[in-house]
Amino acid sequence: MYDVWNKVGPGHKENFYERAAAELFRQKKKKFKEQLRCKVKIGDQELGLYVFDFTYEDRIVIELKQGDNFSKQNIKQIYAYLKATNLKLGLLVNFTSKGVKFKRIVNIK
Question: In Å, how far are 11, 32, 42, 44, 53 from 94, measured between CA atoms?
Fold first, then answer.
């Protein structure tokens, strides 16, 4: 993500950072899925659909944001993605005006 910020710089839309991250993952031959859709169900009934930025190496949910601070809403969003996918680790990545900030989120349930 530091490479993304160094190449793109501050102040852009989230989707610009997403596209740049996907391109760098491809160049480095990393295993990832982008704009992943995950249905949330109870039994046979579908409750809704989550769409999140990336899964990385089939183990980590990555959500990219633009802004200087982590919001409670964004942290809750990662927890929901982890529960829906049964994955244990999520990264909330903020592209700020001065660089990149990470927040590691662990699903312990």
Answer: 11, 19, 32, 36, 13
| Domain annotation for the chain: domains and CATH numbers | 2-106 (3.90.320.10)
The pTM (predicted TM-score) of the whole model is 0.90
The one-letter amino acid code at 93 reads V
The full DSSP string for 75-96 is HHHHHHHHHHHT-SEEEEEEE-
Amino acid at 57: E
Q: 11's torsion region: left (phi>0), alpha (psi -120 to 50) or beta?
A: left
pLDDT tens digits for 29-44?
Answer: 999 999 989 888 888 8
